[in-house]
Amino acid sequence: MAPWSVERMTALAREIAEKTKTITGHLSSKGLGRHLTMSMAWPNSPSRPRTRSQLHDVAVGPKESLRYLAWDSADSPSLQALCEFKVPQAVPLDGIISYEDLAAKVVALNDGLDIPVLNLRRLVRHAMTNRIFAEPKKGFLAHTRVSRLMLEDEALSSWVGFMTHDLWLPMANVVGAMRRWPASEESTETGVNLAYRQGAAFFDYIQQDQALAQRYSLAMQAHGGGEGYSVASVVEGYRWGRLPEDATVIDGYISFAIAEAFPSLRFIVQDTVGMRTPETIGAVLEALQPRVQLTTHNFFTPQPVVADAYFFRHIFHGYADKYCIQILQALVPALRPGAKVIINDGALPEPGTAGYIEERTMQTMDIIMQVTVNAREREPDNWRMLFERADGRFRFGGCWRPEKSRMWFIEAEWAGEV
Ligand SMILES: C[S@@+](CC[C@H](N)C(=O)[O-])C[C@H]1O[C@@H](n2cnc3c(N)ncnc32)[C@H](O)[C@@H]1O
């Protein structure tokens, strides 16, 4: 079937109708038919949004679909403006407000900043094309479910601010960074450095500004709290029970949940000195204290603890290959035959092997990792090669993704001598 043809349009439309029937049936069976306001896991149809956008693209043709793709870059400034100028806060929760009254409220919320009503109106009307706000009566604005979320869900509105403001300038500077520092693997030679004209790595940079750090931390809650990042998938997604009786696992904070589920395991939780605050130390439940020990260690320096398994969650995707190899090599002095290195991290699906949402999420994440720290997400082959490059005595055990998880498990075993 030709990709740009009437036949293809018809097939896509049929596919959408069939999948929509599955979804509506599922929602109605759960009594949710009239309240589609929460985030939903669409049953059996991971490719539904792709089918819909494919139908749009085929309908408008290749030339227009490309033109729209670039044209949609205006989504970010309108979203950014709503967030920055606190527009959702100026609209009554129930009822409507005229653009003139809205402008007066927005100016007051922004310390008298001159925001002309026509400028405000164009930003809001653009946002309306994305179902943010509605104009039920000409010249009067009301909340929609989406705009209310920007008011009511602090983590989600921080996510919007972080993506459309804090990260948007760095995104626009990633090509400039590639020209200025070709093939760099350094976290201080990125779009963030170019955009904000500063020399610190992303995380150090945001820590210098309390408001920025707080917005990032809340935004990560919206991201981490999303579908596919649950603690349960870490606990259930790996054969923890098959580790030797009384095995010692070196890890970050996720240990608490694994320790609760697997009483035969002991955990030594390593992190930087800065993370050993009374708050983090106090987080170990009394019942777990005999088996979960919080310690400090810099994972770029030789590992002092001989253990059965070394678990890294959400670590490697934050570093370029050069540094991941250093982290793996730093384990070698402590590794004994059969010791496992277990990684729980994002992985890039091979093109065409995952649903559209997962593929697009991970490809976007890969770009964000480059923009912020010159790191990357990895395909299964990249993971294998990482271990090979670190040391030929690692035996790669493969990658797998637990059901409903966006995070993969990647495993290797030490096959060297003592
Ligand atoms: C993205 S967080 C992941 C935390 C946790 N493993 C999880 O799954 O959510 C990265 C963690 O690595 C720690 N970290 C950063 N640099 C480190 C280093 N050189 N040595 C040890 N830990 C480090 C940070 O303090 C932070 O706790």
TrEMBL record:
InterPro entries: COMT-like (IPR016461), COMT_C (IPR001077), SAM-dependent_MTases_sf (IPR029063), WH-like_DNA-bd_sf (IPR036388), WH_DNA-bd_sf (IPR036390)
GO biological process terms on file: methylation
Molecular function (Gene Ontology), one example: O-methyltransferase activity
UniProt keyword terms in alphabetical order: Methyltransferase, S-adenosyl-L-methionine, Transferase
UniProt entry tagged with the keyword Transport: no
Key word Transferase present: yes
Domain named O-methyltransferase C-terminal: residues: 197-390
Protein name: O-methyltransferase-domain-containing protein
Upper classification of the organism: Eukaryota, Fungi, Dikarya, Ascomycota, Pezizomycotina
